[in-house]
Design goal:
- This protein is an alpha/beta fold.
- It has two domains: 18-134 and 367-371, Enolase-like, domain 1 (2-Layer Sandwich), CATH 3.30.390.10; 138-352, Enolase-like C-terminal domain (TIM Barrel), CATH 3.20.20.120.
- The chain contains 13 helices and 13 strands.
- The strands form three sheets. Strands 4, 5, 6, 7, 8, 11, 12 and 13 form an eight-stranded mixed beta sheet that branches. It has a three-stranded antiparallel beta sheet with strand order 1-2-3.
- A hairpin with a 4-residue loop joins strand 2 and strand 3 (58-63).
- The chain is globular, with a radius of gyration of 20 Å.
Length: 376
């Protein structure tokens, strides 16, 4: 059973009774569509959840699934989860997570169900922060300090020169680390040349992460990883299919370069073997696959095993988590969502500061709801 490890008191001055849950689907164009080489993404498909309470407060959660399933997740919220939450007190999201977890036993507890729960969980924690008039990092006993963030999205689809040019733009803005992509479109020799030239272009003082996006098998990963070790990489990310745990651990046990991953896993339960193995130094959970409650539990379990947390994407939400756990690592900047917010977070010299606003503090521009209806 996926239990939570959060036993702190987050009580509010008065109960926050849930009276309504609304969802909206949007398709907002990217300002700079990602060129991943294996996914075509023209729009940011959003599922937005609003949880309304008896005393007039509204908490907001959202998901950005990359490969469809929007209406399925939305239906899961309304058919399976909304009836469980209506009338409940939103003051203890971890307890409500457990209630939802127990209510979804028959239908399964991964995939669509957890993604739907995650959207609701984000909104519930937003409500707690709003009711307490505190940002979430403060609710959780963290510090609103600047946090290191790396420049991501040096996509393989940009080609050799394009990846380097984008990385150099990040460095010019003060970033001290970037992430580039390999595999899928490139041969091992081409990957090696791309990484070699990236290292030469950026010098020795910039961290370089490499993302495989599950594009190799175990033998490829070990051979290619050894070829790339000379370029002093910060990590190799998702070298094989996420559910091929045996290969994952074999690769991590062989390469000198750290092997990391976790964005396509669900909750601490799904990452148990990665945690117990002791060879994966950093996990990269995605807040769409666990919400705040699931990621806080994972951070606790990972910390006990000496593992750090570097959340996948969504720094505007994940900054609160990283600012309040004992085992933080990097945040990831793609810049995908900056044009969605009334007040986007700013990055200065490779650091991002979590907002001081109550809850998670992020509010969508109102015109998005009329200008960009969901298109599928």
């Amino acid at each position: 059973m996926q239990t939570t490890t959060d036993s702190a008191d987050y009580s509010c001055a008065e109960p926050i009774k849930i009276t309504d849950i609304r969802t909206t689907l949007l398709s907002v164009p990217f300002t700079d569509p990602p060129q991943t080489g294996f996914l075509t993404l023209d729009n940011i498909d959003l599922l937005i959840v609003e949880i309304e309470t008896e005393n007039g407060l509204t908490g907001i959660g959202y998901l950005h699934p990359l490969a469809g399933g929007m209406r399925t997740i939305e239906m899961c919220i309304h058919e399976m989860l909304k009836p469980v939450l209506l009338g409940e007190d939103a003051s203890d999201p971890a307890a409500l997570w457990q209630k939802l977890w127990m209510s979804t036993f028959i239908q399964g507890r991964m995939g669509i169900t957890v993604m739907a729960m995650s959207a609701l969980d984000i909104a519930l924690w937003d409500l707690v922060g709003i009711a307490r008039e505190e940002p979430l990092w403060k609710v959780w006993g963290g510090e609103g300090r600047p946090l290191p963030i790396y420049g991501s999205g040096c996509y393989r689809g940009l080609g050799h020169d394009g990846m380097i040019e984008k990385a150099e733009r990040y460095v010019a803005r003060g970033f001290s680390a970037i992430k580039m992509q390999v595999a899928h479109m490139f041969t091992p020799d081409e990957d090696a040349a791309n990484v070699r030239d990236m290292r030469q272009a950026l010098g020795d003082n910039i961290e370089i992460m490499v993302d495989v996006n599950q594009g190799w098998n175990a033998d490829n990963a070990i051979a290619n990883g050894k070829l790339l070790e000379q370029y002093r990489l910060a990590w190799i990310e998702e070298p094989v299919l996420a559910d091929d745990i045996d290969s994952y651990l074999a690769i991590a046990g062989t390469l000198e370069t750290p092997v990391v991953g976790g964005e396509n896993h669900f909750l601490s339960y799904d990452m148990r073997r990665l945690i117990e193995a002791g060879t994966i130094p950093i996990l990269q959970p995605d807040i769409m696959r666990g919400g705040y409650t699931g990621l806080r539990t994972l951070a606790t379990d990972a910390h006990a095993a000496g593992i750090s947390i570097a959340p996948h994407l969504f720094p505007e939400l994940s900054s609160h988590l990283v600012a309040s756990i004992p085992n933080p690592s990097w945040l990831e900047s793609m810049g995908w969502h900056d044009h969605l917010w009334i007040e986007p977070l700013t990055i200065e010299n490779g650091y991002i500061t979590p907002p001081e606003r109550p809850g998670h503090g992020m509010h969508f521009r109102s015109e998005l709801f009329s200008e960009f209806p969901y298109r599928r």
